[in-house]
Write a structure and sequence with these properties.
alpha/beta, three-stranded mixed β-sheet, Rossmann fold, 10 helices
Length: about 290
């Protein structure tokens, strides 16, 4: 069957080869969009050829955070985002057809790590109580670079929670011990996980594209979750006979400051997505 290009729109994706980018590329193509992978050496002409730019680029945060690697985490996000914002400005100022000015949509990833950790407060997009650790400061700067483009394009900031999918990321690592009958509790187990299924994340981004919404969006499921309840849910599919608790100090020794990804958390709610009419297929964590 011949593919119909939806309105002739071209979607450029940075980080297109990653787990999220791969799933998004497939879904957008199936929906009739023309998808372009924006590789590391993309230039202004590549951006000018896009109607929609989705910025997913960034070094993996699930590794040991040495000072050198923390610099890479930061620079890989801010550098790419800054380039896109500058190119959008230059394109806008030189666009020959004034009717086309500002019609591009720039969707830039961020993370729920921007919010304060280890509190019972539920954070919506209308909450501005941000953290002050490395990840929170990174997210503030990351979003700040993206918002520099807001005079020249529509900008949507998507604050991702932990992406839960068996295809990669955190969930396969959480499942692995259970396959050997071992239930692993990380830290106290009571820390919250702001999470979202890969399917709902992809659907949410397409929803923003098709509704033309802009601003900040929490990309997290409405159902809350802790590491303990996640481990219990996993054990229902993979029966376990031994329970092991991994203390925070052990994770700190292995991951340095990166242990906070596992030992801290917050509760976020996707208020703006829901208000806009988006429906989650997986509002609760199930295997």
């Amino acid at each position: 069957m011949q593919k119909v290009i939806k309105n002739g729109k071209v979607v450029g994706i940075t980080g297109a080869s990653g787990m999220i980018g791969t799933a998004l590329n497939s879904a957008l193509t199936d929906s009739g969009y023309n998808v372009m992978a924006l590789t590391r050496n993309f230039d202004i002409n590549n951006i000018a050829g896009c109607d929609i730019i989705i910025n997913l680029a960034g070094a993996n945060i699930g590794k040991r955070w040495s000072k050198t690697y923390m610099r890479e985490i930061r620079e890989s996000r801010l550098g790419t985002t800054s380039r896109i914002a500058q190119y959008l400005k230059d394109i806008h100022l030189n666009e020959p057809n004034t009717a086309d000015k500002g019609k591009r949509l720039f969707i830039s990833a961020s993370a729920t790590g921007i919010y304060k950790e280890n509190t019972s407060q539920v954070f919506t997009e209308r909450c501005f109580e941000y953290g002050d650790d490395f990840l929170a400061e990174l997210c503030k700067s990351w979003e700040g670079e993206a918002m520099k483009a807001s005079e020249y394009a529509k900008v949507a900031i998507t604050r991702f929670g932990v992406v839960m999918t068996k295809k990669g990321g955190a969930l396969p690592k959480m499942i692995l011990p259970s396959k050997f009958g071992i239930k692993v509790i990380i830290g106290s187990g009571e820390q919250n996980i702001s999470w979202i299924s890969l399917e709902d994340l992809v659907r949410g981004i397409i929803f923003i594209i098709e509704t033309g919404n802009e601003g900040v969006f929490n990309f997290t499921a409405p159902g809350s979750l802790t590491y303990k309840t996640a481990a219990d849910t996993i054990s229902q599919e993979y029966p376990t006979f031994i329970k092991i608790r991994v203390p925070e100090f052990a994770l700190r020794a292995i991951l340095k400051d990166g242990h906070k990804i596992l030992t801290s958390g917050n509760i976020t709610y996707p208020e703006r997505l829901i208000e806009s009419g988006f429906t989650f297929e997986k509002p609760l964590f199930v295997m």
